[in-house]
Amino acid sequence: MTIFIITHQAGFEVDPVIDRLKSLKLPFVRFNQDDGDNISKVGFLRSDSKENIFWTSDNKSVSLTNVGCAWFQQPPPFTGQPDNFEQAVQRNNLIAFLEATFDFLPVKWLNRVANARRAANKVLQLHLAPSVGLAVPNTCISNDPLTVRSFCSKGPSIVKNLNSSWIAQENDAVVSSTKFVQDDYIKDDQAIIFCPLIYQQFIERRYDYRVVILGDATFVSRCDSTLGDPADVRVDNKTGANFYRDKIPPEYIEKLKNLMEILGVDYCSADFIEDRGGKIFFLEMNICGAWWWMDELHGGEILDSFVKYLTTR
């Protein structure tokens, strides 16, 4: 049976997994969800009570009947991005096909597509996290100026995107970092009304944690937050800078696994912070989050876990 990997042409994090599958001579199909001239071929055929579905990319094809395991590595890069009329027609039709047919696959999934899309919603994550015992910072998600001002008037606050921090552009991608709420911004009604954002109480922290869970395997890395930007340790640092292999109290792993179970996902890359008093707060789960830089810290064990998950019935 074939391992079905759902990604896009710039989804480089599947490359080491594919290289390992090739070395093991295991059958796989990488399906790219790109649009434009790079669009892949798909098909739904029904005749005389018989049905078949196929997905073809880079001249490799897989059908509904010969998928053994599926991995939804990342949504297409154009999701939610501005488009012209032709792009809208192409993308809307492609997404309609893919969302339905992926859901038809009665196989072992590494994050079923419908579950991954729902679980990625940060409002839902912040709503559910306390129900499994995870502390979250005081939070306001709004575009109402009075509500936002009232919240931010209680002390230093940070602001970040409600959706992905990565914004795809025609030839590049822009990342939006977490920032402190500035006085000129908080006085501008139209700036606040423009879109709902996540506003949170600023917490002086001593550590940032990245926790990767993949099935039964868990990997934790930690960094000294005082060495990075106070609002976002990623600012002016390369990915993973100052992080090292470490642990987090096991109860947080169990709580995170409970949250994943509620949301129906088997992989996530989650962020926690620890304040100066030792209290640990949950920030978010990245359902399709980066793992490659963590793999370097963990001696290739995350890659091993991906391959084991995809090849074990």
Shape: globular
Instruction: Give the CATH class of the largest domain.
Output: Alpha Beta
- Examine the secondary-structure arrangement and name the CATH architecture of the largest domain: 2-Layer Sandwich
Query: Superfamily at the CATH H level of the largest domain?
Result: ATP-grasp fold, B domain
In spatial order, strands of the major sheet run: 16-15-14-17-18
Number of domains: 3
Backbone CA Rg: 21 Å
**Category by helix and strand content:** alpha+beta
Mean pLDDT: 91
Q: How many strand units?
A: 18
CATH fold topology of the largest domain: D-amino Acid Aminotransferase, Chain A, domain 1
User: What level of helicity do the residues show?
Assistant: 25-40%
Poorly predicted ranges (pLDDT <50, ≥5 residues)? none
Percent of residues in beta strands? 25-35%
Number of helices: 10
Distance between the termini: 10 Å
Major sheet: 5 strands, antiparallel
Order of helices and strands: EHEEEEEHEHHEHEEEEHHEEEEHEEHH
Can you tag this structure with a few keywords?
four-stranded parallel β-sheet; D-amino Acid Aminotransferase, Chain A, domain 1; 29% helix; 313 residues; alpha+beta; 10 helices; five-stranded antiparallel β-sheet
